[in-house]
Amino acid sequence: MDNSFLQAQFDIRLKSFHLQFEAVINHGFTALFGPSGCGKTTTLKCLSGLLQPDSGFIQFNSTPFFSHENKIFVQPEKRGIGHVFQDSRLFPHMSVKQNLLFGYGLTQPHERHFFFDDVIALLKLSPLLDRSPHSLSGGEAQRVAIGRALLASPQLLLLDEPLAAIDQPNRINLLTSLKQIHQEFTLPIVYVSHDLSTVLNIADSVLLMRSGKVEASGDPFVVLKDYVSSDFYSQNTLQNIFKVKLTRTDEKAGTCTVAKGNVEFTLPRINANYGDEFFLDIPGSEIIIATERPHGLSARNILPGLITNIQSVGGKIFIGVDAGIQVEVEVVEKTVEALKLANGKQVFLIIKATAFRRIN
Question: Would you tell me how many other CB atoms lie within 10 Å of the CB of residue 229?
Answer without folding.
Answer: 10
